[in-house]
Amino acid sequence: MAETxxxxxxxxxxxxxxxxxxxxxxxxxxxxxxxxxTDQCDSIGMNDDFYRQNHAVFLLAKQALQVxxxxxxxxxxxxxxxxxxxxxxxxxxxxxxxxxxGERVALLDSRWVLVDTDTRRILRRPPQAFEAFHFEDEVPFxxxxxxxxxxxxxxxxxxxATYSRCDTNGHMNNTRYADAAADVLPLEVLTRGAVKSLxxxxxxxxxxGQSAELVLGRDExxxxxxxxxxxxxxxxxxxxxxxx
Length: 244
Known about the structure:
By secondary structure, this protein is of the alpha+beta class.
């Protein structure tokens, strides 16, 4: 049985992942977290071939990011990712980032579901091959992943699943929704402040070449609510960002 309780990796904050104030963007941090999660799975043999052979794949349902301090370009971050055993068809994975002093700068709580690639249905019980990987029974960090829609929203343009936004699944990568949500905020909001928390709920994937209409609003706590609706009328995603 493969022990898969935690995995550690270091990343340097690249200038190309920073905003105009030389701070790591929320979307770029999600990409670091995605990379370490993939690296951990690859290290134990849970790779593309494994998923194809077992006709199952992990899909991201929700995630919440809490930023204690926004890292700046050139910093070296140590990320630790901790996957949790399946509970009620949901796999939780928590990823923590610490700076060179050992102080936590960010925490990410992501919720995944395992989907049958033939039927597209959520698997409430993982295939037998997945039982060889022993995740943590309980990961002691949890963030609120709930999103509350404000009473009023206004049109905020559209986002298209262009070539540079798509991944090997043929649809817009989950981290690019964070970019899209930030991009519709007033520019002066992000030049004066930084994203300190982000919650995203993924409803329906946005295939390559397709677009989603965006709306923008403010929730009761002052957060920025952004949502997208696909051309077929199905909801694509919802997000709430707080900027300080």
